[in-house]
């Protein structure tokens, strides 16, 4: 990877480390509406998919700020890894199409 990518990766991890513990403790918009309309309790404990990092707190760490910072780092790294994988797949597919088109042009000329 290029040097700029590494700098951005380190910057993203540092932001996740130092800013995630200061995230708002208030519920997000959907949770707030569920609270206001009185159906939040109906969804509690009925998860379709178990989150590896429930409520943005990494399990097994007792200090809440540290658990939130670790969850921020893990979430950032997972997101960047998935985005990088998708970019590699798209780039590879685009390169393959270009190779096929070039071979087709060579054969037809």
Report on the structure:
The protein is mostly helical and 109 residues long. It is built from four helices and no strands. It has helices spanning 3-19, 29-37, 40-43, 64-108. The longest helix has 45 residues, at 64-108.
Main traits of this protein?
elongated; 109 residues; mainly alpha
| Helix count from the secondary structure assignment | 4
Report the count of strand segments: 0
Rg, rounded, reads 22 Å
Spans where pLDDT lies below 50 across 5 or more residues = none
Order of helices and strands: HHHH
Largest sheet, described in full?
A: none
Percentage beta strand: under 5%
Main structural class = mainly alpha
Mean pLDDT: 86
- Alpha carbon gap, first and last residue: 38 Å
Helix content: 55-70%
Shape designation: elongated
Put the structure in a nutshell.
The protein has helices at residues 3-19, 29-37, 40-43, 64-108. It is mainly α and 109 residues long.
Secondary structure topology:
Blueprint: H1 3-19, H2 29-37, H3 40-43, H4 64-108
């Amino acid at each position: 990877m290029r040097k700029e990518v590494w700098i951005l990766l380190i910057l993203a991890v540092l932001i996740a480390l130092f800013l995630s513990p200061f995230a708002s403790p208030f519920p997000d918009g959907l949770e707030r509406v569920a609270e206001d309309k009185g159906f939040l309790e109906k969804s509690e404990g009925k998860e379709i998919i178990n989150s590896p990092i429930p409520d943005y707190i990494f399990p097994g760490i007792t200090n809440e700020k540290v658990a939130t910072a670790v969850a921020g780092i893990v979430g950032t790294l997972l997101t960047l890894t998935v985005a990088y994988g998708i970019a590699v797949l798209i780039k590879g597919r685009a390169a393959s199409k270009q190779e096929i088109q070039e071979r087709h042009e060579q054969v037809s000329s």
